[in-house]
Amino acid sequence: MKRPLLLLALIPLGLWGIFALPDVLATNPAGFWAWRNPLIILSGLLALWWMSAGMLLAARPRWLEQRFGGLDKLYRLHKNIGIGAGLLVLTHYLLEWLPKNLAKAGWITAPNRPHGPRGEPEMWINLAKDVGEWAGYILLALVVIALVKRIPYRYFRWVHKAFGLVFLAGVFHGLILLPANFWSSPLAGLTAALAAAGVVPALLSLSNRIGRNQQHPAILEVIRQQDDQVLEIICRPQAGWPGHKAGQFLFANFGQSGEGAHPFTIASAWNAQEGTLTLAIKALGDFTATLAGSLKTGQPVVLEGPYGSFDFAAGENSAPQIWVAGGIGITPFLAKLEERAGNPPPAANTDFFYSTRSAIGFPDQLAERCHAAGVRLHHRRTDTDGPLDPAEVSACLQPDSSVWFCGPAAWGAALAQTLTGNGLPPEAFHREIFEFR
What we know:
Radius of gyration: 26 Å
Oligomer: single chain
Number of strands: 11
């Protein structure tokens, strides 16, 4: 995750150093005021690159999803890029606004520049300045809103969509205000191309077209409320559903006004003859807590997907695996158990550590499913047995093991640290953590 962010910072910085910095140095700049304008241009350039990259990721392109190992990881990167873009916009704004206002207040010395007669006002430049200023205010407010998890998803969803408009305003502001001599450098062409690439997903987002080619109609056939606040629903996709692998997830739109589509892990393997899929939904937020009372059998549902690369590919046939689930994180493993039940490996090569406070995960069937799939189950109730100890998982490590984890982020980080410290290569720890609103 750190490498893409590092590259996104170093590439434009390096290009600026090659194509723009020599011209800056040729003027023999001395002092802050001489460097202020180049730094304003550089910070704006970086902000435009980061915003464009964020818009590209927002389009959920399949080739990028596969490159980064799943849509959940793509979205995490998108979130970090959004935060970085907000900080760059803030830096850009402060470099422009703060020094001149401090100079006006007499707190710092203003530059000694001759003031000649002003020419005619340039409409497009003045408009670009005003648009950029207001877009900056809105962007910073949106970044703060996006980070406040207490805001219900239905409101966050509509606020988040405003990023598309802010991006278009930022592109207009940035490209109009680039210095004329800057356009002769290859960096300007690359910046314009990247901005143009971001304009397309921005327009798709504003017109609600992102992911439309992955949407499939379905019928809700079964609604089953478990005793542990888990809602099990069975959907029957209509013609066009491509099937899915265990561990993948989808976006489900149940037709509730203002809510849109929410992500859920698929809790069943795909059987084309049976033609149904199961979602196990834990009541973890304002939407999921009231979902059971708003659904009816026979109602239409729109499914978008499948997404994700939590597909158990590593060591599937030979090397040992360790599965670790916390609470509702059991859902991808339920699908894999179902998939493997008809064709278990020759010898049990999988240990499944399942830690839960309640009975999430179809407990009446879990041991039976594990036995049929050739999986050794280690089931721990945290209320009675205490928390799962990473050392217990480490004790099952074998040469060439791979570990598949789905659950709380903090516990996953502790587990990864313990396992890598005991000889597991970092790339053998496959993590899938969902953030619920």
